[in-house]
Here is the input.
Amino acid sequence: QVQLVESGGGLVQAGGSLTLSCAASGRTFSSYGMGWFRQAPGKEREFVAATKRSGGNTYYTYYADYVKGRFTISRDNAKNTVYLRMNSLKPEDTAVYYCAADPVGQETTNAFGYDYWGQGTQVTVSS
Here is the structure.
């Protein structure tokens, strides 16, 4: 069982920045595929960013087109934590943001491939 706890959400003006954190339990975090997803009111959950191991200490990163160039996913395996740095925020980025873990380390963009989910953290971007 993997437990995920997100933090860092809040209210920010358009153009501002936030960094979300997701702390994970488990002794093999470095092998987990980790993803960030978001869900706005009345909309389906959508992929934001993901990272998975490519070999050794190297990791692939993946981004949805609508956040590419503005958001950055990173991880600190010593702290069992994955981050989502969000810059140039827009009102349409307003959503509950969830982190997800795939202990097998294979999944990237498909929410159904992740086995564990955090409780979510609210991000609100005002215009």
Remarks:
- The two ends are 40 Å apart (CA to CA).
